[in-house]
Amino acid sequence: MRGGGVADGTGRLRTADLDDVPAVVALVERAYRGEASRGGWTTEADLLEGQRTDAASVAELVGAPGSAVLLLEEDGALLACCHVRVLPAAGGPRRAYVGMVAVDPARQGGGTGRAVLDAAVERARGLGARVLEMTVITQRTELVAWYERRGWRRTGEQRPFPYGDERFGRPRRDDLAFDVLERSLAGPSAGP
């Protein structure tokens, strides 16, 4: 996938390969964990510490069939990424999962996240998906609201947080869970 851009018309969209794994891991960590993440609004630093992902996990996403990690770059710098994968058939319309949406903290709030999420929606449509799914930490109400403004809705389903598995970080609270969100791809792209 080539072309595209962010809200101001700059940037290049492409699909990650294994050479991109270290840069993707660094971006995801910077966007969600530690002090650097506090420069944007999507930080999870008050909820979790430690890593958000690792090279082995990202490499698995990059190499898996029916899976793509989309990168949005500008002048050789990685601004944002997003993972899209087709879910196994379970009856009903074809579904895809969207995750690992990460935007450099210095670029948050300017349309970069919207651009990479729109690219994920288009990739999922191209894969034949009619419904998108994602999970967001329940306590991230401002992030859930951002997704809702883009056409996602809460399903009412919650999934447990993987306590005890430090590949996902070390929780700073004992009440973390994931809300499941969905978005239909039957109509046009969502608004602002």
From TrEMBL:
Gene3D superfamilies: 3.40.630.30
Top-level taxon of the source organism: Bacteria
Keyword Iron applies: no
Annotated N-acetyltransferase domain residues: 11-177
Repeat among keywords: no
Recorded GO MF terms: acyltransferase activity, transferring groups other than amino-acyl groups
Keyword entries, A-Z: Acyltransferase, Transferase
SUPFAM superfamilies: Acyl-CoA N-acyltransferases (Nat) (SSF55729)
Protein name: GNAT family N-acetyltransferase
